[in-house]
Design brief:
This protein is of the alpha/beta class and 358 residues long. Helix content is 44%, strand content 15%. The protein has 15 helices and 11 strands.
Length: 358
């Protein structure tokens, strides 16, 4: 029965892992979604839906990590398809973003064997000297890779990157924060404790970050909750996560695809998101993943615990490499939000208002 668990959450009590798992297993989407929407309304302005205009800049696809779930990366030495964007190309992408009212870039790439911290310091400084842009960049696995490549500690790496212009850190590379799962889908990649450790150090340095979950591959429902628990525990400790974003694994073109026996439906996506809102009682913002689900489901998700539609995403390469290529404009976002009777609000990366459409 979900009713006692939902009543507990609505009374302001924290639900347990077992109760969260019961909600995920219940398939009681309407009741769970309604409770998630109520809790969202208490934590953020119920009459507003936020979104951001920014761009994904994938500066390189060269990577030594060989993750089975990734269709984007290319191995070092792949001269046909491997790339490292020249500075001039990155500058142009930033200029195009600013020209349409964008406020930030989400910059992530592969674990390039030749790029040490000097490369990133130079790039970030040059961007900050030229443009009023927020640099939301380098997931925890990239930061760990840079630290190892540069023979530095993670705190020293983060401090130098922050001083060079890194403003905040995206939650990429989390996948599922359970090492049993990580050993299957990405055995060479950052372990659970390392991912959390990078985020802990970033939070202690005063850097805001996001948290993510990529599910629907080899994890169990209990492991999805275990992932959320690790996020909730670190948030209790540091209060550094400003948002949580979950999305379903996109299998096309990946080596992991043959191991996946069931791809999550839109129903499961909405239920998982609603449970994340209820369980993560210390995270302010839950973001809808229209990029993987499509705009219609992304819009529905705004009534199942999400308060943010995410990014217009002028450019996106990683999900599209796996065959999912949903696209939307600012006008599409505004129409989708107004159709729900809500006020669209363009925000920046730190959730500050940029423009309101009344």
């Amino acid at each position: 029965m979900t009713a006692p668990i939902l009543e507990k959450a609505l009374d302001g009590e924290r639900i347990t892992d077992e109760e969260a798992l019961a909600l995920l297993e219940s398939k009681d989407l309407v009741a769970v979604g309604k409770a998630a929407d109520e809790l969202r309304a208490r934590r953020t302005d119920a009459g507003r839906i936020t979104f951001i205009i920014d761009r994904n800049v994938n500066y390189t696809n060269v990577c030594v990590t060989d993750c089975d779930f990734c269709a984007f990366y290319r191995r070092p030495g792949d001269r046909a398809e491997g790339y490292l964007l020249p500075k001039a190309v990155i500058y142009k992408k930033v200029e195009e973003t600013l020209a349409i009212g964008g406020t930030g870039v989400l910059m992530q790439g592969g674990h390039h064997p030749d790029l040490g911290i000097d490369y990133y310091e130079d790039l970030f400084r040059s961007l900050k000297e030229r443009y009023p842009i927020h640099l939301h960049a380098l997931s925890p696995p990239e930061i760990q890779h840079i630290a190892r490549r540069s023979k530095l500690t993670v705190p020293a790496t983060l401090t130098r990157l922050r001083d060079a212009g890194l403003d905040s850190i995206p939650g990429g590379g989390a996948e599922i924060l359970v090492d049993r799962v990580r050993d299957i889908i990405a055995p060479k990649k950052t372990k659970t404790a390392d991912w959390l450790g990078v985020m802990r150090h970033a939070h202690r340095l005063g850097m805001s970050t996001t948290a993510t979950m990529m599910y629907g591959h080899v994890e169990t429902l209990a492991e999805r909750i275990e992932h959320m628990r690790r996020i909730r525990e670190l948030q209790d400790e540091t209060r550094g996560f400003r948002a949580f974003i979950s999305w379903t694994f996109q299998p096309q073109g990946t080596r992991l695809a043959p191991l996946v026996t069931h791809h999550p439906t839109s129903f499961e996506y909405l239920l998982t998101q609603a449970v994340s809102r209820i369980y993560l009682d210390n995270v302010d913002h839950i973001q809808s993943s229209w990029v993987t689900q499509g705009m219609k489901v992304g819009q529905v998700a705004l009534e199942f615990g999400a308060d943010d539609l995410g990014s217009v995403m002028i450019e996106e390469n990683v999900v599209s490499a796996a065959g999912t290529t949903h696209r939307a404009s600012t006008d599409d976002f505004i129409r989708a939000i107004k159709a729900l009777g809500k006020t669209p609000v363009q925000r920046d990366t730190l959730y500050r208002d940029v423009r309101v459409w009344n």
